[in-house]
Amino acid sequence: MKVADIAINLLSDLGVKHVFGIPGDAINDITFALENKDEIDFVLVRHEEGGAFAASAQAKLTGNLSCCVGTAGGGAIHLLNGLYDARHDHAPVLAITGQVDSEFIGTEYHQEVDLKKLFEDVTVYSETIMDPAQAPRILKEACKAAIENRAPAHVCIPNNIASADCAGDPINIATLLATREVSPSSDNLDHAAKLIDQASKPVILAGIGGAEAAQEIFDLAHRIDAPIVRTLRAKDWLDDDDPICIGGLGLLGGKPGQDSVEDCDLLCIIGADFPYQEFFPKDAKTIQIDSNRSQIGKRLDIDAPLIGSAKLSVQGLLDRVTPKDTETQRKHWIDKVKDQQDDWSKIEKSDKSPLHPATVMSAIGDQTADDAIFLVDTGTTTAWAARHLRVKRNQRFTLSSGLGTMAFALSGANGAQLAYPDRQVVAIAGDGAFNMLMGELLTAAEYGLPITAVVFDNSKLGFIALEQEAKGLPEHAIAFKNPDMAAIAQACGCLGLRAENTKELSSALSQAFASKKPTVIQVPVDPDVLIMPPNPTFSQAQKFAVAKGREMLGKLRS
Fold first, then answer.
1. Which residues 6+ apart lie within 8 Å of 370 measured at CB?
2. Is 339 contained in some domain?
């Protein structure tokens, strides 16, 4: 058996279904080893970055190991952005890269790059197999590191090593399949429960790490009369229509979520790593639950750290806290959410043209299937989705959260559709992000993936414009002319549509969801609408006014 076969057999045994990449001379043995495998397929992408995004999306949505590959030199380098996305969002991905023959390593050979060193920052494990006898151990250690740390790992295989024979028994994967649940100590749980009992205005901040304990978190919120505020990634499991969830925190959140955190006397953080310290309460007591000690106290000092799995930790609190005999606090914030939603509905149901982005986002949510999967790109679409895409109980939602890189949604949608072939998959992207890896439409067409990509066309880098105006600067170097994306989609073998009003948008969404083809819907949206923070300050308003004045003067002069 060749080293390449050992690698693919291990991935297959671990349940990996797809390997994303582009062939090349240094990984031809790897891709050929997939040729006759029924249970695992090679997926030919159009750019290795798209393959890494697809693998990252699969890992985020399934929670299981995924894989991408790149040949020596440029092919391997192209994987990095998608792997950094996986690193920041705690997604287990194995990256296999080719390399020049081992005898030439260190001689600046054609296409030689020090890939072990290059991948060391993005991965939790990066090794080169220099002897076929090393292959089983290194491959197993890489997969173990990726699964245990929920992060990318990297194995570099020189061309002559991949094709070399490797004797030995099949790799024992028992340690890779074992699950782990950790409970905090009784003393720590007792202390945290005491803080909860003493609080009159507790608030729960839930992140993606709380998904495993969804029911327990709901039960705790009801028992202690606490609203749940969420991070953006927690939209993946926190139903936006559940009144116990009062919205998000931070610039992309809403006023009820932000105000409740500012007003609370106890903040219980569960499975969340929210980096923006300015949005945390100044004087409240704090509890943080995380299975990783290094995550606790990273953003603010914690009074009661609970190191353990979310499910066991919250169960421990449920066994200890005294039920509160009122729902006054939660009802107060639920009323605030209703007031906010009444305001938001005015723009969500608007029929003005060009369309308001919130109108488009609301329409997408209204027409998608009850188990749809949303992949949202970085930019203004992130903000509009955070507030106006109402994700239902059985739907899924993911994005490039920690890294915040553009071009994730389309490639991620390909990975999601392959992982969930019977579910509706929707990529939501701004025009800037979509243009970056538009070639992945060809991947969707080749594999018959019926994804729907909705492109918000404002002919500029909208979020950059917002950042410029927040500094008091006029918009500059952010405008561009878009192609006819519907025509490009048709040329790629996909369905291409354009929607300029609410009637056309509703019709386009219906056509897309009924089609068995990949579909692109290009939607011109109002380029001048602003995403305002939940509680804008006078300084922020002043800088926006200055920026708009400068823009107006610039137009008059031109």
1. 392, 394, 395
2. no
